Amino acid sequence: MTLTTTTHLNFRGTASQALDFYQEVFGGEVTRATYADTGMPVGAPGADKVVFGQLDGPVRLMAYDIPGQDSTDVAPTAGTTTREDGATVTDRTFFQSVRGGTLEEITTCWEALVQGAEVIEPLAESAWSPGFGMLTDRFGVTWVVDVAPARG
C-alpha cells in the first residue's frame, strides 16, 4: 500500500494568492480550478474563487476558498498562536511544518515566509534543533520551520 498525506488549507477568498505565494517560497507547480470552471455561472458571486488548488513540488499543499466567506481577516478560520512564558498558546488544531536538512535551506524558506507574517518564535538555535522558528503568515497559516536534528 502506498499512502501520502497532503495538507488541505481553507481560505476566505485568498486561496489563489496563497498558492502563488507558496509557489514563490517553495517552488513547484500550481494547479487551480475556480467555481466558474466547474459550472458556476461566470459573474456569479464567488465564481472566480478557488474550488480546487494545489501546489506540487518540494512542498505539497492543497487550497480551497470557503464559499461566501470572502475576507482578508484570517482570524475566523485561522485562530491565534502566541508565545507566553516559554510556552506556545494556541486555539489552532494544527501547524504546518517545514523541515530541512540544513540551516541555510531553512533560512531561505523562513526569509520568504516571514514577508507580511507575524513572528511567534524567531528563527534561532533551540535545544532540539540547529534552527527553529514559528510564524503565522499573511494568509493565516502558522508554520513551524526547523532543521532536522542530527541523528546520533
UniProtKB/TrEMBL annotation:
It comes from the Bacteria. Gene3D superfamilies: 2,3-Dihydroxybiphenyl 1,2-Dioxygenase, domain 1. Residues 13-144 form the Glyoxalase/fosfomycin resistance/dioxygenase domain. InterPro entries: Glyas_Bleomycin-R_OHBP_Dase (IPR029068), Glyas_Fos-R_dOase_dom (IPR004360), PhnB-like (IPR028973). Pfam families: Glyoxalase. This is VOC family protein. It comes from Janibacter melonis.
